[in-house]
């Protein structure tokens, strides 16, 4: 299994907490505000990496379809 960077782990843990509380995933903007990562491009790159590593998945072109498939722990 590939080891996550500190940023990737932070984003994944933030996603886990957000989904546990709200029962739906955050938007890129919401995720950016929560993590303090100002660039939506950076958020996108991190989420694509997490998808490539098998931690998340989503339906392209559909909002709020992100699913956590593997936890950070």
From TrEMBL:
InterPro entries: LexA_DNA-bd_dom, WH-like_DNA-bd_sf, WH_DNA-bd_sf. SUPFAM superfamilies: Winged helix' DNA-binding domain (SSF46785). Residues 1-65 form the LexA repressor DNA-binding domain. It holds the Pfam family LexA_DNA_bind. This is Transcriptional regulator. It comes from Cytobacillus stercorigallinarum.
């Amino acid at each position: 299994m590939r080891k996550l960077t500190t940023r990737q782990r932070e984003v994944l843990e933030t996603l886990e907490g957000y989904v546990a509380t709200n029962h739906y995933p955050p938007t890129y903007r919401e995720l950016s505000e929560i993590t303090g990562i100002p660039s939506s491009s950076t958020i996108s790159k991190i989420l694509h990496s997490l998808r490539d590593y098998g931690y998340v998945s989503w339906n392209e072109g559909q909002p709020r379809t992100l699913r956590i498939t593997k936890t950070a722990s």
